[in-house]
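Here is the promised in-class demo. Please do not try to memorize the tokens; focus on the logic of going from shape to residues.
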């Protein structure tokens, strides 16, 4: 299902993902359809990103007889970046219902395009073994790098972090890989261009506004 690069960057190659992403790109797609599409792609990203998780073996009993089963060993936590990361969270929670969700508030300043941290729900001590960082778009890469730094300072090693995004720019992806070599990244697709004001082209537009139907009239 996925094409894997040696640098631990995984770009999904699946007709269902391509079709759903194509619908997300269109300006005629409604907020409801956009939310559903982000959810569906996030679900596939979560399944693919979980394929190498360590399993713990246990002995169980079916109505017929004994069996050897398995369960996920590491404690998984999610860190969605507000607000667009919320659009990915429910899909991941359907896979890991007991996972804690630690919201991170980071926005990109419009002039400098630099990330500004304004909120963190990370507890003093990590209670999880692995973090899935959720951010639908990696444009310049600044926001993702700021979030990664927060999680690393919290005490989660880089090898225990997986960055999941619906769409990345090649420039933003290169920046994240350069600043955090060895990070495992999962993306549904990568676009080649970034505009002068830091937007992915052709991209999806403002994912947060499209998820929560807060587009200004001129943008619709």
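The designed amino acids, position by position:
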């Amino acid at each position: 299902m996925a094409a894997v690069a040696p640098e631990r960057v995984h770009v999904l190659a699946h007709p269902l993902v391509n079709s759903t992403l194509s619908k997300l790109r269109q300006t005629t797609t409604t907020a409801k359809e956009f939310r559903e599409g982000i959810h569906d792609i996030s679900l596939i990203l979560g399944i693919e990103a979980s394929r190498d998780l360590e399993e713990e073996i246990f002995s169980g009993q079916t109505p017929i007889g004994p069996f050897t089963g398995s369960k996920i060993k590491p404690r998984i936590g999610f860190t969605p970046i507000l607000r667009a990361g919320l659009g990915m969270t429910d899909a991941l929670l359907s896979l890991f219902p007991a996972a804690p969700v630690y919201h991170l508030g980071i926005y990109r300043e419009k002039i400098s395009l630099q990330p500004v941290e304004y909120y963190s729900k990370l507890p003093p001590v990590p209670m999880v073994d692995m973090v899935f960082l959720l951010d639908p778009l990696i444009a310049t890469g600044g926001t993702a790098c700021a979030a990664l730094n927060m999680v690393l300072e919290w005490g989660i090693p880089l090898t225990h972090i997986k960055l999941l995004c619906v769409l990345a720019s090649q420039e933003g992806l290169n920046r994240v890989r350069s600043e955090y070599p060895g990070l495992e990244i999962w993306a549904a697709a990568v676009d080649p261009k970034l505009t002068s004001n830091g937007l992915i082209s052709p991209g999806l537009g403002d994912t947060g506004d499209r998820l929560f139907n807060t587009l200004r009239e001129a943008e619709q």
